[in-house]
């Protein structure tokens, strides 16, 4: 059976924290712990106006890819609420294909 | 939004995937709504306190009837003894307050003095007034296909080739009629961004061009763009010939702003100025989205005028994928202004600062904010005796300049009513009667983007639950109004009120809107050709000359230059070099975070976990010279005040500039005087002087002050 995962197109992750908070709500996760946690790389200047500055949300071992929601035909809550709509849920093989098509600044998690 | 209520508690908040704009997305302030609604510190019943106990936590719960029995006779007595003008209503921003504090003042209480206490009215009002005078239209919003149910796929829609964000970061800010992350939708479809910002923001790293300018020099940059576009013959000749007034004068004026000279002023390289100007002139359609930085600048009227000029001469007004234009007033936004018919001309003439500042008082129905502080301090032209604070916590560093001065002046009021959701520093300091407000989950309402000035969409707010004994803004307006001016309030219920607002203009009633959730009015482009911008139905713009006024007839009539010009900030390395030796950094304030709305949300622990402390951004090189390391507590200080923050070292800011966040107070600290929830500890607005406003009365230097920074041992 295929595994499911999260594809994150972090060209468009704005660092809004909606995934973190939606996940905490869904799974009743207390302060100090996260089911998905935003990480930040940068900002630093490469040359001229070119900068490296990325946000990437990383699912933790508390993430069950919203099993209950998915059973009800809904999206995982992080994907549903993501303001940048930069997260996708699905079988990893399909996501890997999409990943190859997107090119740069994409990451696939299989938590 | 979908709100799930179980046993009287809001248990879950979910975005609605069918909403054409949000598509189910929600920000973290919405996602933490249950925490806000059921917060143990919420005030959910009316309270009173003896005037001698102001500043003390000596509240007594009362019923609404008791509250009215205190308030109504007091208002009647003040009106009889001192005139209705002795009462002033202060209004805050956001929630639904903006729509209701004008009618609360004009029609429920009957005073001409309604005040938005931000120095130079420097939020949104200037942009609306400038647009009204220059274009004769409502708020100019970028076309993000918001009026189409099928959005970007609609055949009438054209994708903007570029969007220029001028002093705005709509991902985090609160753009009144624009869903911030629509910008990401547009970027994915191929729109290029151009950022005009003193910081290299995250959006900047995804933009085609970034003009990282010296804070407050924006008008010079805009004039240089116009200089290049005109001198290189890149402007839209048809649009200028047919629809613009005063082009020759503009052409002459911008000769004073060649790119090399402006590069020295703004720190933006001359070659980049040329490149950006050529890019926006030769790629159509495109749009400029202007932000708060236009308002919070004493030179802001000229900047706004220049930005609208850029939109006009590049041919991007009221075209698909360009700038959409609405009516100057509509729906509830129109009603709130029209309630002033309750006031006699003699009473209306007493509005504070109206005669002295006609450019402000013609478009805005309020007092002049800075004059209002002067009146509180001097008792001239008459003494103010009662204050009503509607969702306004303005001794915290939100809107008022020198809030410490307002704080001292407000002590002269003999009776105060405060409406809010939590006990705030402002309420603790001044309220004699506290009237609790429901959250938007707890009362019926209508969302109307841009307050009707460009209603991209309307939404119904359906009450999901009600915690405690609160009353919404409109409920308070109606109940108080029926007691004092019943002829102004012929509404049987809140529902009846909303139906009477919607029906005449849209043909739908409140229940229709509730069933539809979202109503998207049909948008029509090129209204300047069809005659739908003017009240007489003639083609053109609804201005004095009937055209876009590149040269303004009204500004000239009010004693201002008819054309845009650049003026240095009141305090800067150039205008005050001696002071700059002592205060050698440019201070800009108020860039937004996802975790708060101005002074709101400081008690929401999920949000405080993300942003626990007031923050200031400083370049690592500057910090190293000052012996400051990341996370240190520092003091920012200048000739007007000082404020603490935690230092965040970041290369996104220029070495000569620092940025400080706003809106900080500490609900976890003692509420009683002198602490007032620690309101004076990180009060960045104490560094911003009162009444440093533009010639027409608009603007203030919140984003372009100077200061020094030093490390301190003790934080907050």
Question: Can you describe what's shown?
Answer:
The complex is a heterodimer of chains A (111) and B (716). Chain A has 111 residues and is an alpha+beta fold. Chain A has one domain: Alpha-Beta Plaits, CATH 3.30.70.20. Chain A is built from four helices and five strands, in the order βαββααβαβ. In chain A, the strands form two sheets. Chain A has a three-stranded antiparallel β-sheet, covered by helices on one side. In chain A, a hairpin with a 2-residue loop joins strand 2 (36-47) and strand 3 (50-59). The two termini of chain A are 16 Å apart. The model of chain A has no long low-confidence stretch (mean pLDDT 96). Chain B is built from 28 helices and 26 strands. In chain B, the strands form seven sheets. Chain B has a seven-stranded mixed β-sheet. Chain B folds into three domains: 42-122 and 331-452 and 458-519, Rossmann fold (3-Layer(aba) Sandwich); 125-327, Dimethylsulfoxide Reductase, domain 2; 577-711, Barwin-like endoglucanases, CATH 2.40.40.20. Chain B starts with a strand and ends in a 5-residue tail after the last strand. Chain B is 32% helix and 15% strand. The longest helix of chain B has 19 residues, at 64-82. Chain B has 716 residues and is an alpha/beta fold. Classes of the chains: A alpha+beta (111), B alpha/beta (716). The A-B interface holds A 11-12, 14-18, 20-22, 24-25, 31-32, 42-45, 49, 51-53, 55, 80-86 and B 12-15, 17, 23-28, 31-32, 34, 171, 180-181, 184-185, 187-188, 200, 202, 204-206, 209-210, 594-595, 605-606, 609-610, 650-652.
């Amino acid at each position: 059976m295929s595994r499911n995962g999260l594809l994150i197109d972090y060209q468009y992750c704005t660092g809004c924290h909606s995934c973190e908070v939606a996940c905490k709500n869904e799974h009743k996760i207390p302060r100090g712990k996260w089911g998905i946690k935003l990480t930040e790389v940068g900002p630093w200047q490469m040359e001229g106006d070119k900068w490296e500055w990325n946000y990437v949300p990383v699912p933790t071992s508390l993430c069950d890819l919203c099993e209950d929601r998915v059973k009800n035909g809904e999206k995982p809550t992080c994907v549903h609420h993501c303001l940048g709509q930069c997260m996708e849920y699905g079988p990893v093989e399909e996501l890997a294909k999409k990943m190859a098509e997107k090119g740069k600044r994409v990451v696939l998690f299989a938590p | 939004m979908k709100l799930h209520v179980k046993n009287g508690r809001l248990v879950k908040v979910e975005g609605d995937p069918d909403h054409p704009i949000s598509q189910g997305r929600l920000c973290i302030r919405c996602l933490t709504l249950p925490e806000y609604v059921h917060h143990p510190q919420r005030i959910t019943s009316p309270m009173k306190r003896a005037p001698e106990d102001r500043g003390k936590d000596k509240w007594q719960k009362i019923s609404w009837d008791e509250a009215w029995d205190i308030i109504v006779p007091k208002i009647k007595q003040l009106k009889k003894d001192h005139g209705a003008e002795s009462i002033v209503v202060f209004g805050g921003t956001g929630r639904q307050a903006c729509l209701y504090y004008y009618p609360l003042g004009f029609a429920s209480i009957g005073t001409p003095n309604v005040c938005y206490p931000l120095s130079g009215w420097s939020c949104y009002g200037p942009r609306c007034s400038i647009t009204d005078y220059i274009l004769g239209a409502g708020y100019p919003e970028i076309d993000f296909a918001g009026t189409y149910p099928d959005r970007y796929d609609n055949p009438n829609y054209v994708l903007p080739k570029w969007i220029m964000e001028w002093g705005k970061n709509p991902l985090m800010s609160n753009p009144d009629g624009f869903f911030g992350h629509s910008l990401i939708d547009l970027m994915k479809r191929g729109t290029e961004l151009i950022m005009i910002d003193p910081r290299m923001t995250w959006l900047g790293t995804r933009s085609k061009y970034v003009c990282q300018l010296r804070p407050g020099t924006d008008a010079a940059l805009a004039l240089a763009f116009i200089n290049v576009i005109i001198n290189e013959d890149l402007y839209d000749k048809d649009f200028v010939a047919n629809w613009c007034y005063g082009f020759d004068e503009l052409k002459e004026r911008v000769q004073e702003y060649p790119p090399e000279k402006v590069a020295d002023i703004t720190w933006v390289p001359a070659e980049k100025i040329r490149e950006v100007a050529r890019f926006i002139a030769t790629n159509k359609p495109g749009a400029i989205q202007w932000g708060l930085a236009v308002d919070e600048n004493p030179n802001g009227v000229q900047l706004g005028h220049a930005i609208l000029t850029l939109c006009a001469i590049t041919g991007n007004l009221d075209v698909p994928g360009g700038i959409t234009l609405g009516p100057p007033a509509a729906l509830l936004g129109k009603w709130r202004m029209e309630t002033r018919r309750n006031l006699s001309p003699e009473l209306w003439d007493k509005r504070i600062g109206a005669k002295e500042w006609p450019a402000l008082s013609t478009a805005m129905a309020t007092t002049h904010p800075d004059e209002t502080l002067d009146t509180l301090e001097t008792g001239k032209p008459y003494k103010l005796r009662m204050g009503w604070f509607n969702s306004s916590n303005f001794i915290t560093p939100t809107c008022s300049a020198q809030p410490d001065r307002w704080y001292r002046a407000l002590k002269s009021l003999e009776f105060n009513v405060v409406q809010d959701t939590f006990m705030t520093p402002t309420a603790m300091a001044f309220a004699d009667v506290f009237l609790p407000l429901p959250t938007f989950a707890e009362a019926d309402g209508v969302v109307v983007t841009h307050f009707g000035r460009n209603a991209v969409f309307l939404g119904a707010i359906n009450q999901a639950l009600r915690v405690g004994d609160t009353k919404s803004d409109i409920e308070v307006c109606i109940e108080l109004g029926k007691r004092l001016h019943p002829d102004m309030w012929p509404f049987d219920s809140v529902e009846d009120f909303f139906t009477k607002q919607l029906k005449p203009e849209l043909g739908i009633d409140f229940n229709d809107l509730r069933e539809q959730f979202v109503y998207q009015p049909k948008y029509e482009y090129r209204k300047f050709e069809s005659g739908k911008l003017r009240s007489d139905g003639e083609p053109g713009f609804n201005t004095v000359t009937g055209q876009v006024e590149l040269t303004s007839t009204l500004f000239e009539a009010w004693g201002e230059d008819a054309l845009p010009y650049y003026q240095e900030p009141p305090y800067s390395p150039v205008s005050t070099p001696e002071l700059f030796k002592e205060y050698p950094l440019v201070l800009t304030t108020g860039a937004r975070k996802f975790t708060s709305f101005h002074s709101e949300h400081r008690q929401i622990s999920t949000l405080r976990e993300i942003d626990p402390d007031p923050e200031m951004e400083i370049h690592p090189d500057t910090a190293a010279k000052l012996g400051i390391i990341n996370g240190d507590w520092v003091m920012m200080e200048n000739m007007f005040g000082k404020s603490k923050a935690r230092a965040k070292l970041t290369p996104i800011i220029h070495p000569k500039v620092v940025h400080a966040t706003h809106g900080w107070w500490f609900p976890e600290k003692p509420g009683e005087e002198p602490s007032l929830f620690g309101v004076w500890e990180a009060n960045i607005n104490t560094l911003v002087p009162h009444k440093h406003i533009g010639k027409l009365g608009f603007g203030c230097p919140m984003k372009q002050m100077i200061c020094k920074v030093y490390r301190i041992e003790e934080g907050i």
